[in-house]
Amino acid sequence: MSAQFFAKKKDTPSSETLEALTVSKEAIQDAIEEVVKETKESVLLAVEEAKQAEKKKEAIRKEKEEEIIALKEAALMLADAPSEERKLRPEVRPHAFVVMPFGIKKGFDGMVINFNAIYQDLIKPALIEAGFEPFRADEETTTGDILTDMFQELLLADLVIADLSIDNANVFYELGIRHAFKKRGIVHIQSGRAYMPFDIFNVRTIPYHTTEEGIPDPEFLEKDIQAIARVTRDTWATGIDAIHSPVFNLLTGLDEPDQKSLRTPLATGFWREYNEWKQRVTISRRQRQIGDILLLTEEISNPLIKEEAIGAAGKALANMGRHELALEQYRKGLEINEGNLEFHRQEAFHLNRMGRVDEAIVKLETLLEKHPKDSEAIAYLGRIYKETWTFSWRWVEDLEKRLTTAFESYHWIIKAFDTYLKGYRIDLNQFYPGVNAVTLGSLLVDLADRFDDAENPDPDIVNVRETLPELRGALEFALETFAQDEKADYWTLVSLAELRILTAEKPIEVTRAYRKALIASRRNEFFLSSSLGQLEMLQSLEMRSEFVQAGIDAINDEIARLSQEESKEKEEDAEKEVTAQQVFVFEGYTVDPEGSKRNLFPADKEEKVRKAISDLLDKYNADDNDLAFTAGLSCGTEIIFAELCAERGIKVEAHLPLADAHYVREFVIPGGDQWVERFYKIRNHPLVDEKYQIEQLGLPKKGDDPFERNNRWTLYSSLVFGIDKVRLIAFWNGKSTLEDDRDTRLVKYMVDLMRDTGGVVEQINPEKLLNLEGGVKKKKSTQTKKKTTAKKSK
């Protein structure tokens, strides 16, 4: 083809096209410059945000390092000058999780919002004002999956406050998760928008004010803080049945999932505090260290973790037989979560164990009004009725009269039987109420065969008699099936063993059943004593005596085996604990350092001080049947007290806030070499057991005074027999001023703790005892000096 052909085929641009393609160089240049400018600003903003984030990360890292260093030194000294009034115990505030964008973002109508400034200057202060512990995802400084930890916060936080100022996808996604899983504890806030998205437009949203720079408006800041604080406080104060989520408002049949089901072990950062706590409490429980358990549980700051920790601590204290302390724990748990059914049940259980039967019944009946199908609560009520019956006849020594008395109060057996049976029928997988119903029913029939009118039997007894065979057969079948599972727990296996007492043809069948259950008991003495109590009840009424004795022998053999495995020293300690009658706690002053103006305990007055402490111990006839605790072994009254106790054969447990060398340098050496020698002598005494705070409990929380923590630890440890057995001996002038030194403040703190706990305080006032003035040595006046000089000249 010729070139001419191609020339003809080629399109020639029209004048309109040429005109459209003709654009001024100035317009193109302006457009390019605008794009470059916007890109440059965006890049610079991103770079600046990255720098700020890096700086913040570095600052957090340094802060963490400094914190660890400070804690490793065990907070050798907080400032001697007392700060503002401190609370006696760590305060646990409800947890608020903040959902909001990060950094500087564009809002509506071209406005910008600095969300970091909004959080720091507005939201955080408002939440603190309302009594919350605020937290935002970027404040997590530990390693772990931030996304997983964020989900845990959304699902478990007491309150979520969401900033909806802009249409941020992450914020709305997180808000949707909260709405879907939790019915209450949600607050919406926003700034600068005229409308809210349709799905949440009817949910009350609290507005706040910002400046053109996107920071909180100083003119309205205080009012905005108070408004948000008021709404969050009011939201939290609503009852547990209140609904704040639009999802739960619309879907009235929707049930909120159990909190435990929302926990994921992948949130390592979120649950780290609980895992560390659990390890230490497990050790403390094995060592029977009540003070460690109480203090470690008290120190958990996150209410979400605290609820679960309180349950574990309550169970540990119950297993140690400390029902009054367990009751206190469960009541603290109910302050955190009123809806925790297990805490309500345990409250009633421990009230009953403490002999407060009427209170326990009222608690359970109130619980069952709200939750009529709570089989565990019904079983607890059945137990109270059973114990009411046993208390009516156990005191009778003569066997025949005991049996007669037991039958005469059989209406309580029927009440307990019906209650247990009701609990079992509600949940057939709960064997405990079923086995108790069978046991009590069998006892009732056995007594009725001896004492009831055969021609005119009680219809209620006849009903029990007719119910028993079917109930016994159903239980036996179910228990034998579940017992085949290698993961069967102690209570399942021991329930089958208890059933064998009533059904076995030969005693060896009972022995075998109990031995199998004992393997699953994991050496838990509480389990063993509970089962033994059931058998002793049957033994007292001569119910199938040969079979009952087989069960008792099996359990006693296990208890004896556990005792033999303990060391001789532990057995001696256990014997000492069993026979101890009184517990003394001591807190007092160190001697005045030589050359100081301090006038609390002059070194030359030691004999008077020693006699005063000795006289007080004599007042209580203190001897080797008692125990003693001190919050240190400082030069002065604490060493003197420990020496006096050792002379009387009293075992002393000394709690030291610092490591050995640091403690001696800080609290012993200022008294002189003779006190250092006395410190090591008493510390090494066979009756003195020193415990170091960091070794036993770990590092104190940031901001917690290690010496006040030591006082709490000492006092809690002394509660081994209950507060009514404890006496605090305080060597203290009874004064408290801003000029007080650490000694005076710590003694006052211990006195306040003791009084708050409800214990007895015995005070030795050094000013009255030693004729001192004011705690500080006063310079002699010029006139006094002149008189003294005049006398000398004469």
Q: Report the major sheet.
A: 6 strands, parallel
β-sheet strand percentage: 5-15%
The strand line-up of the biggest sheet is 11-10-9-8-12-13
Number of helices: 33
Shape: flat
Mean pLDDT across all amino acids: 82
Question: pLDDT under 50 segments (min length 5)?
Answer: 1-10, 66-84, 567-579, 780-794
| Radius of gyration, CA atoms, in whole angstroms | 36 Å
User: Tally of extended strands?
Assistant: 13
Q: Structural class of the secondary structure composition?
A: alpha/beta
* Residues in helix, %: 55-70%
Terminal CA distance reads 149 Å
Task: Give an overview in words.
This protein has about 800 residues and is an alpha/beta fold. The protein is built from 33 helices and 13 strands. A six-stranded parallel β-sheet has the order 11-10-9-8-12-13, sandwiched between helices. Strands 4-1-5-6-7 form a five-stranded parallel β-sheet, with helices on both faces. The longest helix has about 50 residues, at about 25-70. It is flat, with a radius of gyration of 36 Å. The chain starts with a helix and ends with a helix. Residues about 1-10, about 65-85, about 565-580 and about 780-794 have low confidence and may be disordered.
Give the tags:
single chain, 794 residues, alpha/beta, six-stranded parallel beta sheet, five-stranded parallel beta sheet, 13 strands
Structure in a nutshell:
Helices cover 59% and strands 7% of the residues. β8 (583-587), α25 (606-619) and β9 (627-630) form a beta-alpha-beta unit.
